[in-house]
Design goal:
Length: 202
């Protein structure tokens, strides 16, 4: 997977490649899909959600330019795979999942695998995690129609956020935001993508 799907493309950050080698992706997908766990495609994980293809996980992670001391917020825990990859790279990961069965299963899975530097919260990710803010990096693994302002507010000065933005049922723009001094945002378009919609509370 790492050699053929990541290194052969544009994933060059050594720490990201090591993290993708180490995390057992097959343990984060339903048993009936385990034979496909390392294929270059997203897979269903239940509740209408998916685990992103390995390349997208690697690309979004690399785009954040993480340091070991970073505090990272993830919106959209899903099966917990992206959180596990992040936990191999940074000191602390805070991850939010709105779908309770997915969040509970991910928390148990991550605990069983020994990830003590991940905290899971079942909650509407649009609001972020104010009590733990600010964050050095934020990664959103679901497509939003617009930038969630609470997440922008919780980004530290010098922080980075990667998020798919665009209309539901259409192609979205994977965006990298950097917060400069005085809260100024620098926005960079990375690539067109398709993601499941950002789920909100009713």
């Amino acid at each position: 997977m790492v050699r053929e799907q990541l290194q052969s493309r544009d994933i060059v950050e050594g720490s990201v490649l090591r993290a993708l080698r180490k995390v057992p992706r097959h343990l984060f997908v339903p048993e009936k899909y385990r034979a496909e766990a390392y294929s270059d495609t997203p897979l269903p994980i239940g509740e209408g959600q998916t685990i992103s293809q390995p390349y997208m996980v690697a690309f979004m992670t690399q785009a954040l330019r993480l340091k070991g001391s970073d505090k990272v917020l993830e919106i959209g825990t899903g099966s917990g795979y992206q959180a596990a990859v992040l936990a191999e790279l940074v000191d602390s990961v805070y991850t939010i999942e709105i779908v309770e069965p997915l969040g509970e299963a991910a928390a148990k899975r991550l605990q069983a695998l020994g990830y003590e530097n991940i905290q899971v919260r079942i909650w509407d990710g649009y609001h972020g995690w104010p009590r733990q803010a600010p964050f050095d990096a934020i990664i959103v693994t679901a497509g939003a129609e617009a930038l969630p302002q609470p997440l922008v507010d919780q980004l530290a000065e010098g922080g980075r956020m990667v998020i798919p933005v665009g209309p539901h049922q259409g192609v979205r723009d994977l965006v990298l935001l950097r917060k400069k001094r005085n809260g100024k945002l620098v926005r960079e378009s990375l690539m067109p993508v398709r993601f499941v919609p950002f789920t909100r509370e009713n």
